[in-house]
Write a structure and sequence with these properties.
Strand order of the largest sheet: 1-9-8-6-5-4-3-2
Bound molecules: flavin mononucleotide
Shape: globular
Radius of gyration: 19 Å
Distance between the termini: 24 Å
Amino acid sequence: MITTRLTSDYGLKTPLANAGMAFVAGPELAAAVTNAGGLGVLGAGILSPEDLRGAIQKTRLLTSGLIGVDVLAPMMSAEHYGVLIEEKVPVVVFFWGLPDKQEIAMLRRAGARLWAQVGSLAEAAAAVEVGMEALIVQGSEAGGHNRSEAAVFTLLPAIRGLYPEIPILAAGGIVDDKSFAAVLLLGADGAWCGTRFLASEEADASMEYQAAVVHASPGSTVIATCFGPEWPDQPSRVLKNRAVIESLSGQVRDVPHGTSIGTTRIGSITYDMPKFSATLPTRGATGDPEEMCLTMGESAGRIHSIQPAAEIVAAMTSGASEILSKLTNNSQAV
Ligand SMILES: Cc1cc2nc3c(=O)[nH]c(=O)nc-3n(C[C@H](O)[C@H](O)[C@H](O)COP(=O)(O)O)c2cc1C
């Protein structure tokens, strides 16, 4: 049992959340994490408002516990805000930007608690300034979009020191009991894990994508901006597959405009991925994974199997709890 202000403020059994990963964190994953005692978070990503509503409703059929929705601020429309408000989503997490005052007021009136994922001291200050109730500190080792200015071991204590009163979750490199215990020792109130749950049975990711996580080594990823005709020039930590290596070496083959590298699913839509598409391969995606954006953290190098999300939550929690109590007992003995 691990008790922090996150567990007591939000009624969680463990201070562990799955990252609200676009494409990957759907109803099955979010519900499984909530049912295991953590905070399950849906990734809104680039879902349409209707598909976002469907995902929230489906999650609620799978769990009666607390859930969150993670949104990419630049992708939000008035209709998306309307869905979050009408569905009374209790925790809304912002990434890659912040809502404005009016949006904050509307969400609060609907009962939402608002969190922000930040990657720098400046982003943390901006989030605190607008009244975000918890911060997720993303380190440079993290998977997904990433403009962090430092790794978790440096950034987390720095932000913790500046804002002792705010609940903080650490994001980046947390895959097991030891890394979970480590970020709690560094001052986090909880952990926000992406890549570990990308390699879970409930993740909406293609088998090839999950296999790539399991086969990755510590040096297999890099932060690159090559993906994204849909959303150009956004840095993401990705697997160094053929497309990335070609792009880094300036040897991109000329591909006729409109050529598809495969298909993936965006909610209810089957999407033809153009060369360097920033979309991720969901279950049943077609095409060559060597051509796709396979975002994952450095932590992929420490993940060796696909597991049920509940097992991941249980093993991380019981192991970290044991480590922390051993450390406490040892320090009392000194
Ligand atoms: C596949 C994938 C998709 C992601 N999509 C999002 C997203 O839509 N919104 C978001 O806030 N963070 C997203 N992230 C970043 C996570 O929130 C988090 O910072 C990261 O996963 C933590 O590092 P880790 O992957 O080592 O656990 C994504 C991460 C991954 C691996």
